[in-house]
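Re-run with default settings, no changes from the original entry. Doing this only to confirm the output is reproducible before filing.
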Amino acid sequence: RGKDEKYRVRMPKLRMVKEYKDKRKSVDDVERNIFKFKKSSEEKSKMDKEEKLFRETFMFHGEIRVLATATAERSVPSRRQADLPLTAGEHLDVIDALQGHAVICRNAQGRYGYVLVEHLNFR
């Protein structure tokens, strides 16, 4: 033996479990979307708080379903706490249609409130 081989440490080959190998291959094969972002826990908790407040304020017990989408025609400040303030061109989800001239809507920030139908433009 030469001097180089004398001090060289032999490392044993580690065997990989077959299941782990297959799992690793499948993960590597999946195309990753770098532009897809997950909502942070703060945003989720904020949305949950808004939904809880909505259910308490409007006594809404059913499943929240979007009936239609609408765009605000003009900016309107809220006069009551239950009203949703609007900005011109804002996209809203209509959650519940009441029998009067108002509907319950949700904006992009997750806030809920009453909006008069005359301020909305349905597509």
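The first helix runs from residue 3 to 7. The two ends are 85 Å apart (CA to CA).
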